[in-house]
Specification:
This is Myo-inositol-1-phosphate synthase. It is a single chain. The chain is globular. Helix 6 packs across helix 8, helix 7 packs parallel to helix 8 and helix 9 packs parallel to helix 11. Strands 3-2-1-4-5-6-11 form a 7-stranded parallel beta sheet, with helices on both faces. The chain contains 13 helices and 11 strands. The two termini are 12 Å apart.
Length: 393
């Protein structure tokens, strides 16, 4: 399968790290460490290979992609040797990046977005393109009557004014262009009835929301431990320190609130109740693309004996997120190829706030994902022949 990934926020840190990583994998200069789809249980010929992926995208900023990659190398996010080795390929990707268009109405803007995606697919002879949102987190939008049905939405978009937040407008454009959509952010994206109707009409799969890369990843492992041992979690509070563009964006109270809500969902869903405490996110410019989180968990054991657990997570946000972006793109493209449509609840393993009524324990999500990839492999195999591995090519 000749496949493309259209990135929203294509010049940002996560997008650039994803592109550098994919190009390095294509050239055999690195190993797919951190890519779940490279795990022996996931390595499937149904998934497009890393080397088969072509990149394009939109961004509101300008500047050479190679320059952004050099900045990330200087910050210790990606190895400088890899940036130098794939410099010419980065320039080729740069030629497929477009400035985010803006029409007189949102309908016109969506048509311009869809045209850029369609042109990209045609220009490179791609079989399929998946649109992945890795842009800045939005505040939750106010409810709008047009969000409830596709006909009402189409009519409202033709009028001046903002009916859809940017993430949802991109989902609308992706669906009209015949492309599946994945939201790696906590933004609204495709989570509107009208957009679900459009995806169903176009027979397209979609997934989200909010990539699970650090503190919440640990919560999805530790919360089931407390539940299975029948220990009573009294409080669970966390402090997250972020730098870079994501941290700067989360200074906005609305965006911060949207992010914090998605980070807490796993506790209520896994424990069956919501312990006291919350998650705070603070911006620390000096730490750049790295992040630190500290959590304090207090719990009661036998006879009510009080105890606590503390943990600290320090990581590079872009380096944690980028392999997941590649994983999500590969699986969603394979799902589209196999004729899947609607919300991909099987992708819950990757998200803080996944779609549907799903198990939030990481081990259960892994089994669901592994089974799903196996089904895609079987769907793509010739009649009477099992699919073989090879997704890491």
């Amino acid at each position: 399968m000749r496949a493309g990934i259209w990135l929203i926020g294509a010049r940002g840190s996560v997008a650039t790290t994803s592109v550098v990583g994919a190009l390095a994998l294509r050239a055999g200069l690195t190993d797919p460490v951190g890519c779940a789809t490279a795990h022996p249980d996931m390595n499937s010929a149904a998934l497009p290979g890393f080397g088969d992926l072509r990149f394009g995208g939109h961004d509101v900023t300008t500047g050479p992609l190679a320059k952004k990659a050099e900045q990330l190398a200087a910050a210790g996010v990606v190895p400088a040797r890899l940036v130098q080795a794939v410099a010419s390929e980065l320039d080729e990707v740069d030629a497929d990046l477009r400035h985010a268009p803006e029409g007189a109405t949102q309908a016109e803007t969506a048509a311009l977005i869809a045209r850029d995606i369609t042109d990209f697919r045609t220009r490179h002879g791609l079989d399929r393109v998946v649109v992945v949102n890795v842009s800045s987190t939005e505040a939750a939008p106010p409810e709008h009557p047009a969000h409830g049905s596709l006909d009402a939405l189409a009519a409202a978009l033709a009028e001046p004014g903002e009916v859809l937040p940017p993430s949802s407008l991109y989902a609308y454009a992706a669906f009209t262009a015949g492309c599946p959509y994945v939201d790696f952010t906590p933004s609204t994206g495709a989570r509107l009835p009208a957009l679900a109707e459009l995806a169903d009409q176009q027979a397209l799969p979609y997934g989200g929301h909010d990539g699970k890369t650090g503190e919440t990843l640990l919560k999805s492992v530790l919360a089931p431990m407390f539940a299975m041992r029948n220990l009573a979690v009294r409080t669970w509070s966390g402090v997250n320190l972020l730098g870079g563009g994501d941290g700067a964006n989360l200074v906005d109270p609305g965006a911060n609130a949207a992010k914090s809500v998605s980070k807490q969902r796993v506790l209520h869903e896994t424990l069956g109740y919501a312990p006291e405490g919350d998650t705070r996110i603070d911006y620390v410019a000096d730490i750049g693309d790295f992040k630190t989180s500290w959590d304090l968990v207090t719990f009661a054991g036998f006879l009510g004996t009080g105890m606590c657990l503390q943990f600290t997570w320090q990581g590079c946000d872009s380096a944690l997120a980028a392999p997941l972006v590649l994983d999500l793109a590969r699986i969603t493209l394979a799902a589209h190829e196999a004729g899947r449509s609607g919300p991909l609840e099987q992708l819950a393993y990757f998200f803080k706030d996944p779609m549907g009524d799903v198990d939030h324990a990481l081990h259960a999500q892994w089994e669901t994902l592994r089974t799903f990839v196996g089904e895609l492999s079987a769907a793509g195999a010739p009649s009477g022949q099992a699919a073989e591995g090879g997704g890491g090519r």
